[in-house]
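Most newcomers find our protein records easier to grasp once they have seen one. Sequence and backbone structure share a record, each on its own labelled line. To make this concrete, we reproduce a full record directly below:
***
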Amino acid sequence: MGAKRTINLELGISILIVFLTSVLMFAYYSRWFSFAATVGPFRIIHYLAFIGTFYIAFGVILFSVLKRRNPQKYTTLLRLHAIGNLVAFLLVSLHFAGQLGRPVFPELGTGLALYIGMMLLVGSGVVFRFRFLRSANISVTRFVHTGVAVAFYIIIVVHILHGLNVF
């Protein structure tokens, strides 16, 4: 399979995941299905968000380390990074849609900031991966994507502390 065909397939899969995320968010918000069952201290939707967040939080660091240690596997690692993070974004998006659809509208503060950060992370990653801004300097694009990732880490720590009522 040629490189151009592989990129087109990867772009198609990425678009499909983003579309599926939007449809599932709308369906979950509209209560067409539910993850309201509780397992232990949390609802199932929280566990899905935890899985997505942990994948992003640790997967990004792992990707960063492995791409330097195994430069010959960069393309495979990049595909796993891109598609895996989109699936993780889908899981977190379901949680966010559920929070928006709650009967008593929750305080969104850190959660809204976190979700906006994740959208910027996904958006900048897609633009960076598929070179939608061909005229943009690759160093600037990488800097923006990395900067948004750093902001994500800061916001997730604040969000977790807020959720634990630390402040």
Notes: The mean pLDDT is 88. Residues 3-163 form a domain with the A middle domain of Talin 1 fold (CATH 1.20.1420).
